[in-house]
Amino acid sequence: MPSNEEHSPRVVVGVDGSDHSRAALEWAAAEAERRGVPLRAVHALGMPLIVSAGSVPARFDPTAEISDQADEVLTKAAEHVRRVRPSVTVETETALEEPPLALLSHSRTHDVLVLGTRGLGTFASVFVGSVSIRVAAQAACPVVVVPSHGGSPATTSLGRVVVGVDGSRNARRALRLAVDLVRESGGELVVVNSWEVPYPYDPIAMTSMGYEPQEKLFDRKSEELVGEMLLDVTGRRREDLDFEVSVVRTQDSPVNALIGAAEGADAIVVGSRGRGSVRGLLLGSVSQGVLHHSEIPVVILPHHAEEE
Fold first, then answer.
1. Neighbours of 53 (CB within 10 A)
2. pTM for the full model?
3. Which residues, in sequence order, are CB contacts of 59 under 8 Å at separation 6+?
4. How many whole angstroms separate alpha carbon 76 and alpha carbon 220?
């Protein structure tokens, strides 16, 4: 797992030569250019462990053929970045560990970790690649999962960023990250808050008894919530912000609300309530649902990620 050693921020991306990792590489290169930081491409070999009594476990050394293949993957990745983003400094790293461990161990709190929805591993998850799920849950920094559209991301811009909020501390952290991304790119922020009426009711009967209709009550509370969260995160009222903000308040499930609001957007930001574990309880249901349905990059602030 990542240490607390200080280092300069960078964008870390997992590559394996697949179309999915190339899409992630292109998005990561664009993000490195926006931030003015180096890009580190990591290729994981997943070499078997050697375990013997009384000794520290070690990994088999790769054969010359495996090393040559790794060098070829990284060389092509670096050459591609230099073609599409010549201003970006590219670093490459071959890791002996399995892909999830390699990516986690090469990223730190102030980095951004980028990977594709599939590739980088053998086993597939019911939602997206198993590597994506595990890394997105356990990283110490924001993780961006980039879908592939014929080997390229749907977009590399951040002109319109969607974020879901619900009033929780986790949502405030996600909103803060989304605000940073929008300020970084000069784009638009779309804040989504949704609700579902918790029980069936007769609106006519309740109104006749003097009760406020549930939809009207939830909408008013939603408006108050979004305004309070923007003020808390930015220190300014919505009308005084130095970037464009639009708000979507809707009676729908969080996943449907976010996917609907993301039409025509460039990225979705979510905070994960999930708690990473080796047994696979990895991400909150909203994060997994958004990853499953989104056709644009999803930026996840894991439960374990530190606040700056």
1. 4
2. 0.84
3. 47, 48, 49, 50, 96, 97
4. 54
